[in-house]
Q: What sequence folds into this?
């Protein structure tokens, strides 16, 4: 045998010999791993929100030069009919083409539970929107009638309220009039869930506008995106441009790239701080046991066996902290609502997040154990036995 290791339960019993120090170390490691879970959950939630918002079969036609700023887009109202009549192979169902004219804007929204208006996202739509946006599901209530609006599942969070602060039957005010909430909808976690939907004609009347922000359409199985692009380039009088919905949200993801990198930097800094905290704690724990480690060498255990036992202690603590942090994160933080400029999304403590958090925890357990163990084991055995 290469060397004779210490008994497996030696490291476990050592943890219970100093319960206060063990509990403090466990609490510190748990807090660090929990912070990693929250930051990675933020990144995963933001990525998921933008990934599920786009559909590769859906094409957006909006004002030339608007890029990702659809709320500033303005195209003629007749654009919807012209596109439906000019583009071949648009999907059709029971005589209705999958073409949705929409008016989209950011505006101040106010409810009775708010002390002051907050910036919300409003979209004027027609029933055809349900043909194009096939991930929309009506969660409660009914499709909005005259003077009514439909509230996305995360719209209240976008306004700075609790997730369920706006329910069917409540009143919301925007663009100078009061709208009765007819129901709520979800969009499989997509960006639409942060919006308030109302009838297109009523929103145009309230804003005294006759134009649209965009036209969304779905192509059939033989549809070709180049036909839409060609139409936009030929009709110079309309000043249109087209983009696949997935490309639009991919552009938004690129815009939020610096935020994601900043979040990963936070993960790195938190992990580094956790390793330093672990080093400090393990230094204190090992320095107080120098005479014990020297005695183990005296009775025949080689330094590699003692080093393995110290790493085992660190791993036991880190594993316990990882499991405790995972339980807290899944119970308290998974699905928590977060506001951002494009709406709101939920923290996602998914398998990737748990994997990263647990790996960081185990890394802290190993790296935090090595330096103090090396320092203690480099000391001569005689000096170690004399130390108090």
A:
């Amino acid at each position: 045998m290469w060397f004779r290791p210490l008994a497996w339960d030696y490291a476990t019993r050592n943890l219970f010999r100093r319960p206060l120090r063990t509990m403090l170390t466990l609490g510190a490691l748990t807090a660090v791993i929990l912070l990693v879970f929250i930051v990675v959950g933020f990144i995963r939630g933001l990525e998921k929100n933008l990934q599920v918002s786009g559909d590769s079969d859906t094409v957006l036609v909006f004002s030339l030069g608007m890029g990702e700023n659809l709320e500033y887009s303005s195209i003629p109202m007749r654009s919807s009919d012209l596109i439906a009549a000019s583009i071949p192979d648009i999907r059709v169902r029971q005589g209705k083409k999958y073409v949705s004219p929409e008016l989209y804007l950011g505006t101040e929204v106010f409810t009775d539970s708010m002390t002051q208006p907050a910036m919300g996202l409003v979209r004027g739509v027609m029933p055809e929107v349900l043909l194009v946006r096939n991930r929309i599901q009506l969660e409660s209530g009914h499709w909005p009638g005259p003077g009514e609006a439909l509230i996305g599942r995360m719209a209240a969070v976008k306004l700075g309220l609790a997730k369920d602060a706006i329910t069917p039957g409540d009143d919301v005010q925007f663009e100078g009039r009061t709208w009765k909430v007819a129901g709520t909808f979800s969009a499989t976690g997509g960006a639409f869930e942060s919006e308030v939907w109302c009838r297109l004609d009523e929103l145009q009347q309230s804003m005294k506008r006759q134009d649209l922000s965009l036209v969304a359409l779905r192509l059939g199985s033989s549809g070709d995106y180049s036909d839409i692009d060609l139409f936009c380039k030929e009709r110079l009088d309309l000043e249109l441009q087209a983009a696949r919905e997935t490309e639009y949200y991919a552009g938004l993801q690129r815009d939020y790239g610096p935020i994601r990198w900043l979040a990963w930097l936070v993960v790195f800094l938190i992990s580094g701080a956790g390793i330093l905290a672990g080093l400090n704690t393990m230094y204190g724990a090992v320095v107080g046991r120098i005479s014990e480690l020297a005695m183990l060498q005296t009775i025949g255990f080689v330094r590699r066996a003692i080093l393995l036992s110290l790493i085992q202690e660190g791993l036991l603590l880190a594993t316990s902290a990882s499991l405790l942090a995972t339980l807290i994160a899944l119970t308290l933080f998974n699905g928590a609502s977060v506001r951002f400029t494009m709406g709101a999304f939920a923290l996602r403590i998914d398998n990737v997040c748990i994997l990263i958090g647990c790996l960081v925890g185990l890394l802290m357990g190993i790296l935090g154990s090595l330096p103090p163990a090396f320092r203690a084991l480099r000391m001569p055995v005689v000096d170690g036995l004399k130390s108090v």
In short: Residues 19-51 form the longest helix (33 residues). The chain has a mean pLDDT of 85. The longest strand covers residues 99-111. The radius of gyration is 30 Å.
